[in-house]
Every structure is written in structure tokens, then in C-alpha cells.
Specification:
binds 6-O-phosphono-beta-D-fructofuranose, 17% strand, 12 helices
Length: 373
């Protein structure tokens, strides 16, 4: 009997999502007896029932295109802003699911999307998710869709910054995305040969960075590339953050909690200028001219790499096969050379950070890269 499948893409977009939609939709029609509809703009499209039938023609010609043909949003089903008010809209989403007689809903997204999908699963929906984020921080999968493309873009940026840093005898800081994990900065920093790599997992000391740069200068290398993960922090700031977090947890009444939340928000706001402040400090400590490049959304845009096209096609096809078998409540994860369903519950509430003994950390140290510690 034909199964009805809904699909949505949510959270930050990544290259490779269209390959995954195509992989799911083409396997659905060529191999399995599945009918696919796509909801626009993440969970918001599911709420308002804005959809498109994803037949052969809708999925044709999208393999190499970046972004997502369905659009995306960061809406959370349990906390949606509707008419200026934050509301729990999960039941309305459940209604849309039943209106279309769906047998399963496929959600492609990062950590937040995995949580949101899990919440809908708790409301009785059959759900399958795919791991997608340039941050590569979803647990229980070796890699996430989009990471490889972003890694290539950040690496190319570091390559390009090398020649201008060299010509001008400058320090160049390059700020790389990754949210609270350093996969993207570390991976691109090692591949691009950054001299210093700063990641959230290893709080840094500015003096140690300055010393590494001065040491390069003494050996005749009058330029340095510093790859800064957007979530990295100095030792002092990390300490301040944990104090503020524990103040928030320990606050006894509503007023204190509000105050603690406000202090934390202000702290994170100040942190957003980290690369610029660090650049000024390094200029002061080394006497070398310093510049900052924030890569930003360039890392999420454009054509997916060959690896992400392959991965998207594999993940989409694997999801279709699982649906045909009647499996749900899982994320299709990447394990070695293959894909494997893992319980969705095992993915939520956790973040995949870089372990201390990870080979990329060891490799960076072995080639003499300063990690700021
Ligand atoms: O989750 C991917 C990501 O690009 C992070 O690296 C970054 O911190 C965040 O999204 C930016 O979010 P937004 O697209 O909402 O500005």
C-alpha cells in the first residue's frame, strides 16, 4: 500500500539539503511505493500547511544547487511567535500531519531540529530525521550533511588569506562558524595550515598566542594566520561564563533569575566582538599589524561539495528504505562508510564536542600549531 511521507528542512541551511530531498524523493518513486510532500520553511510550513507535492519534476535539476528548495526557519513547534505571542503549536502541527494522512514526517536539520522532531514524536507522530549542520555537532553520527562543503570554503579562505598576510607581514584572524564547537575551525585550520587555532573546547590565553606569533617572527616568518572558532573563549571568559551560569541555576526567586539571565545575555553579546578585541590585543602584544576577516554566511552558501552531494543522496535514499520497512523514531546517522538508524532519543539534549584526544587536535599539535593553551 502507498505510504504518505511529509518532509521539511529546518534550522540553518546547508549545501547538500537538495541532494538529500532528491535522494529521498527519487528513491520514494523509483524503488518504494511512497508519495512525498514537502512543507515550506521548516515547522512553520507544517503549522500553516504550506506544502508542495515533491514529484519527479519538482526534484529534477536540484542536485547541485545550494540551500534548500523548501526554505527553512528556526521556529520551535513548542514556542512559536504567532501574532506577537509565543505559543505552543504542536497540536496544530499534529493536525496537519493527520490531514494529509501521513505515515511519517522526515525532518532534516541540526541539533535544534532533532529536539523539535523528538517533541513531535512524543505527540504521537512517526518521525525520521537526517543530520544536517555545518557545525558537525550532532551526536551519534560520524559527520553531518553540509560540514564537508563548509570545511572546503573555510579552508580556501585560509589559503587566500595566507598570501595577503604574507605580503603585508600581518597577523590575520579569520573567524569561522561552528556555534559552540570547533570542528569547522579545527578542520579548516589544520587543512589550511593556520598557525594558531582557537576552539571552544580549549580556552585560550592571549599571551600564549602572542608568544607563538613572536616565535614565528624570530624565525623569520613575519605573518601569522589565526583561525578563531566563533564560540572560542579565553580562560578568564570561560570562568566568568561558568560563574554566570551557576548564578542563574542557583537563583532562588524570579527576580534573581531574571537578573542572572540578563547578565548572561550581556556577557554573550560582548563575546560577539571577540575576534576584533583579540586582534587589537595581539597587535599590542606583538607590535605586528593585525586584521580580522569574519567568514560568516559564505560558509553556508553555494554549491555543495561532491562529498555532500553523495552524502545527501545516501541519507535521503536510506531514509526512504527505512520508511518502506516501517522504521521510525530514528535519525539516519553516518557510521564509517555506511548509514545506520540510531534512536532519535540518543541524539537530543547532547552536543558533539571535540574530545581532547581527537586525532585533529593531536595532528595540529604535532605540526606545531598553537591552540592557545
Ligand atoms: O548552525 C549553523 C550556524 O551557521 C552556526 O554555525 C551559527 O552560529 C548559526 O548557524 C548562525 O545562525 P543564524 O543563521 O540563525 O544567524
Amino acid at each position: 500500500m502507498t505510504k504518505n511521507v511529509g518532509v521539511l528542512t529546518a534550522g540553518g541551511d546547508t549545501p547538500g539539503l537538495n541532494a538529500a530531498l532528491r535522494g529521498l524523493g527519487k528513491s520514494a518513486s523509483y524503488v518504494y511505493d511512497l508519495q512525498l510532500i514537502g512543507f515550506y520553511d521548516g515547522f512553520r510550513g507544517l503549522l500553516h500547511d504550506r506544502h508542495i507535492v515533491l514529484d519527479e519534476s519538482a526534484l529534477s535539476g536540484i542536485l547541485t544547487i545550494g540551500g534548500t528548495i523548501l526554505g527553512t526557519s528556526r521556529d520551535k513547534p513548542h514556542k512559536m511567535e504567532i501574532g506577537g505571542k509565543v505559543q505552543d503549536m504542536r497540536d496544530a502541527m499534529v493536525d496537519t500531519y493527520h490531514k494529509h494522512h501521513l505515515d511519517v514526517l522526515v525532518c532534516m536539520g541540526g541539533g535544534g531540529t532533532q529536539k523539535n522532531a523528538f517533541m513531535l514524536m512524543e505527540k504521537g507522530l512517526n518521525v525520521i530525521t537526517l543530520p544536517k549542520t555545518i557545525d558537525n555537532d550532532i551526536p551519534n553520527t560520524d559527520v553531518s550533511l553540509g560540514f564537508d562543503t563548509a570545511l572546503g570554503i573555510a579552508t580556501e579562505a585560509i589559503d587566500r588569506l595566507h598570501s595577503t598576510a604574507h605580503s603585508h607581514h600581518r597577523i590575520v584572524l579569520v573567524e569561522i562558524m561552528g556555534h559552540n564547537t570547533g570542528w569547522l575551525a579545527l578542520g579548516s585550520g589544520v587543512s589550511g595550515g593556520a598557525d594558531v587555532i582557537l576552539i571552544p573546547e580549549i580556552p585560550y590565553q592571549t599571551e600564549k598566542i602572542a608568544e607563538a606569533i613572536l616565535e614565528r617572527s624570530r624565525s623569520g616568518k613575519h605573518f601569522s594566520i589565526v583561525a578563531v572558532s566563533e564560540g572560542s573563549m579565553s580562560v578568564e571568559d570561560r570562568k566568568k561564563e561558568s560563574e554566570l551560569l551557576s548564578e542563574k541555576v542557583q537563583s532562588k526567586n524570579k527576580k534573581d533569575k531574571e537578573k542572572a539571565r540578563g547578565a548572561l545575555e550581556m556577557f554573550y553579546l560582548e563575546q560577539s566582538g571577540r575576534s576584533i578585541r583579540l586582534s587589537q590585543d595581539l597587535e599590542h602584544l606583538t607590535g605586528l599589524e593585525s586584521r580580522v576577516t569574519i567568514l560568516g554566511y559564505v560558509q553556508r552558501g553555494g554549491t555543495p561539495s561532491a562529498r555532500d552531494r553523495l552524502l545527501g543522496s545516501e541519507l535521503g535514499g536510506a531514509a526512504a528504505a527505512l520508511i518502506a520497512e516501517g522504521v521510525n523514531g530514528v535519525m539516519v546517522s553516518v557510521k564509517g562508510q555506511t548509514t545506520k538508524p540510531v534512536p532519535l532519543k540518543s541524539v537530543v539534549e547532547k552536543r558533539r564536542i571535540i574530545p581532547d584526544d581527537h586525532i585533529w587536535i593531536e595532528t595540529a599539535r604535532r605540526v606545531g600549531t598553537c591552540l592557545g593553551d
